[in-house]
Amino acid sequence: MKKKKTILIATILAPMLILSLITYVNIFKLPEKIYINEGGNNSSIKVSNSFFIKDSSSNKDKLELRLLGLIPIKSIPVSKVKDLEVYPGGVNIGIKINTKGVLVVGHSDIEENNQRIESPAKTSGIELGDVIVKINGENIESSQDLSTKIKKIGKGKIEIEYIRNGVIENKEVNLLKENDEYKLGLWVRDSTAGIGTLTFYDKNTMQFGALGHPITDGDTERPFIISEGELLNSSVISVRKGEKGSPGELKGLFVNEKDSLGKIEKNTETGIFGEGNDKLINPVYNKPLKVAFRNQIKEGPAKIITTIDEHGPKLYDIEIIKLLPQDKPGPKSMVIRVTDEELLEKTGGIVQGMSGSPIIQDDMLIGAVTHVLINKPDVGYGIYIEWMLKDAGIIN
């Protein structure tokens, strides 16, 4: 009898524990805020694969999450956006940025008195990816500026102020002499350049968004901290087709570097942003599009606007395979697959340089292409447009 009771209790408790665990995990995947279009049909808003929120009143400023429609779990603030329209991108852009301070990309041993000594900066705790912003209280503007200041200081200890993971820290480093010059034992970088794709331009605020992911250093994989940057005209000159295990690439060159399209002001997890001008308006798709937030997006057919040759931006067919729950901004909001035969023939799917290509569904801008899966060049990720609009300062 006692054994039967134990089995009965276990049978009742096991599903409850599993349900509690699933609930706990999914709560942490929920967004801190939901964006909806004012006046739209928001009666059923899907915020995860497990829960549905019902909002019976358009005057509410939050949605109540209920497990199985009964048990209150969490309230999520709602931000209603009225008639937001932006110009879609899809055009190829040149990108030039200068870093704030200098980015540490390598350590260099020092030869002193015919002996090889480990990098003094490394032994003092300076790591790859750190951004050096000051030496002895003086700002560092470039790699050359760092070298000049080190030579001027000469022997002894110096104090380095640097940024690591967004936090300002300080360390003392003993300079070592090599070939009559005092050195830190570091390789640093202060700028980078490349091409990408514009996602949107908002004529009202003059703000643009591009890429859908941060610009990172190839050696350290750390995002650049920007001091200044520019968007420039660029032209695609060739395409390396993507294959399994080898991502493809758009190769381009800058056109008329004196004619700036905009100033890059931010490099975030969701892309690059700044102030532009009307030259960013797509010459082919030159009408503003309404913006759709995640509650309006659905799995299924969609399109992207992208530029892969001299013929300019074109619409290509894709499929949204899966919408992913996200509790914070990031470039992996949805899984997409290229289905357009012409695009597959020319590029193999998604290639480097296409990042930022706007994703269109039901004639609304819903996101941007961000990454390709290396072993499946026709499959990749996209980002929800609301993340980019938020970082651009267009929505709060």
- The CATH architecture category of the largest domain equals Beta Barrel
Q: In percent, how much strand structure appears in the residues?
A: over 45%
Overall pLDDT: 87
Helix segment tally: 5
Oligomer: single chain
Identify low-pLDDT runs. Answer: 50-59
Enzyme class: hydrolase
Protein name: SpoIVB peptidase
Pfam family, one: PDZ_2
Keywords: Hydrolase, Membrane, Transmembrane, Transmembrane helix
Explain the overall architecture.
This protein is mainly β and 396 residues long. The protein has 3 domains: 13-82, no CATH class; 85-96 and 191-392, Thrombin, subunit H, CATH 2.40.10; 109-184, PDZ domain (Pdz3 Domain), CATH 2.30.42.10. The chain is built from 5 helices and 27 strands. The protein has helices at 2-27, 120-123, 143-153, 341-347, 385-391, and strands spanning 34-37, 44-46, 52-54, 62-67, 71-81, 85-88, 92-107, 110-112, 115-117, 131-135, 138-139, 157-164, 167-174, 176-178, 181-183, 186-202, 207-210, 226-240, 249-268, 271-276, 289-291, 300-306, 314-323, 334-338, 358-361, 364-373, 376-384. It has an 18-stranded mixed sheet that branches. A 3-stranded mixed sheet has the order 1-5-4, with no helix packed on it. A two-stranded antiparallel ribbon has the order 2-3. β12 and β13 form a beta hairpin. It is globular and about 75 Å long. Residues 50-59 have low confidence and may be disordered.
